Amino acid sequence: MTDEKGSEQPAADATQKLVDITLDDSSVVRRSPEAEHERAVAIYDLLEDNAFSPIGDFSGPYHLHLSISENRLLWDIRTEAEESLGVVTLPLLPFRRVIKDYFAVCESYYEAIKTASPAKIEAIDMGRRGLHNDGSELLRERLEGKIEIDFPTARRLFTLICVLHIRG
User: Fold this and answer.
1) How far is CA 75 from the centre of its chain?
2) Which residues span the domain enclosing 101?
3) Does residue 30 surpass a pLDDT of 70?
4) How far apart are CA 70 and CA 150, in angstroms?
5) Is residue 82 part of a domain?
6) How far apart (Å, rounded) are the C-alpha atoms in residues 58 and 48?
7) Residue 120 counted as domain residue
8) Lower CB density within 10 Å: C or N end of the chain?
């Protein structure tokens, strides 16, 4: 099966999905209303529809706790009974550029929606979506051989990774 970008998708399986996701908010001072909204929407959408399959002999559905520690993104994967299935660690360095660029374009977008023309807002939003897609594809590449996710799931998870980077 393929997604809208023609990328291979994990097979649809009702057990190979996330049913709970939490973010480590211990390092967050505060978030803007826009960032809180993005976080809430991403989590809601993820729980409504996702494809998440850790590589190995595991059976879901899964709980996921995302956190950042020492420039690494930690994916703490658990069963519904909260039994640990392991932690997948990804270095954050490969994501830094796209996250920085994404934040800059998001800031421009939120400023533009206050006063800019619809054409300018649409152009900025296209750039924002393009960077979001780039980050999502990078996430899928970095998770290859560890966790299989489809493109829509990668997009929502990339949003949450960006939320974790907000430091007030």
Assistant:
1) 11
2) 18-165
3) no
4) 27
5) yes
6) 21
7) yes
8) C
